[in-house]
Amino acid sequence: MKRRRRCIVCGELFDPDPRVGDRQRACGKAECQRERHRRNCADGRERERPALEEDRLRRRLGVPDGEVRLGVVRDECGAKIKVVLEESLRLFSSGTRDEFQTKYVDQRQESLRLVHRCRGDETAAGSPAP
Q1: Cα angle for residues 73, 81, 62 (degrees, 5° grid)
Q2: CB-based contact 39:58 (threshold 8 Å)
Q3: Strands 13-14 and 5-6
């Protein structure tokens, strides 16, 4: 025989539904089910709040567009963090620009070594056609 449980909403004893088993915390009354649902939704919203705030801030900053709006950074974090972020982005962009230029030069030199030059055989200009 199953143990009776106390409802977390109204406090009355109830027999848990056998399909739900030990997981059931509220009785089957409509008011208790509504309150249980309201509490669970509030807990879920509270758990997801940091992720939602982060997503909202990313949209305000323009991150999906690929361009950071530094005015929003200043409003959210302050002028000091804005200046540090600007300088970090400037250094990062100059460093990556240098890295890409170096790779481009290396690739050009590599491709020059792979070029096959004609040796002047019968297909060269001025030789008799076959």
Answers
A1: 25
A2: no
A3: antiparallel
Confidence of residue 74 (pLDDT cuts 50, 70, 90): confident
- Does residue 13 carry a pLDDT above 70? yes
Q: Which residue has the higher pLDDT, 68 or 30?
A: 30
- 11's tokens: 């406090």
CA distance 32 to 13: 13
Q: Which residues are bridge partners to 5 per DSSP?
A: 14
Residue type, 54: E
C-alpha gyration radius of the chain: 35
Per-residue confidence band for 45, with pLDDT thresholds at 50, 70 and 90: very high
Amino acid 42: pLDDT: 96
Instruction: Tell me if 64 sits within 8 A of 58, measured CB to CB.
Output: yes
Residues linked to residue 6 through DSSP beta bridges, in sequence order: 13
CB of 53 closer than 8 Å to CB of 45: no
Q: In this structure, are residues 86 and 70 in contact, taking their beta carbons and an 8 Å threshold? A: yes
How far is 60 from 45, CA to CA, in rounded Å? 21
